[in-house]
Amino acid sequence: QVQLVESGGGLVQAGGSLRLSCAASGRTVTVYRMGWFRQAPGKEREFVAQINWSGGSTYYGDSVKGRFTISRDGAKNTVYLQMNSLKLEDTAVYYCAADSRVAGIGQSKYWGQGTQVTVSS
After folding, report:
1. Tens digit of pLDDT at every position of the chain (121 positions)
2. Is 68 helix (H, G, I), strand (E, B) or coil?
3. 70: number of CA atoms within 13 Å, CB side?
4. Collapsing DSSP states into helix, strand and coil, what is residue 40?
């Protein structure tokens, strides 16, 4: 099992910045990828960004490219999402996710509890 705890959400004005953190614990040695998703009221959950744990390659959703940056600290088992130039449409609950692989068992996806990000005009 992998446990994820997010922090860093809050209220920010449009054009401002926030940094989200997600700390992983438990069987973190099985994690090969972590990422962020978000869900706005009445909408489906949307992919935001992901990072491969070894190598650090990153991938972003089209709506956040050039504004958000995902990074990791392997020593702390923590992934970050730096969000700049925030827009009203970035308002959502942001969820951290971890993809885990265990030989002979398969893959699992774990989710954090979510953190609210509200962008005001």
Report:
1. 999 999 999 999 999 999 999 999 999 999 999 999 999 999 999 999 999 998 889 999 999 999 999 999 999 999 999 999 999 999 999 999 999 998 888 889 999 999 999 999 9
2. strand
3. 25
4. coil
Collapse the DSSP code of 86 into the 3-class scheme (helix H, G, I; strand E, B; otherwise coil) and give the result: coil
Residue with tokens 């992998």: 2
Residue partners of 56: CB distance under 8 A and separation at least 6: 72
- Asked if 2 and 30 touch (Cβ cutoff 8 Å), the reply is yes
Euclidean distance between the first and final Cα of the chain, in Å? 40
**Residue position matching structure tokens 């002979």:** 104
Q: Using an 8 Å Cβ cutoff, are 81 and 48 in contact?
A: yes
Q: Quick one: tokens of 69? A: 């940056």
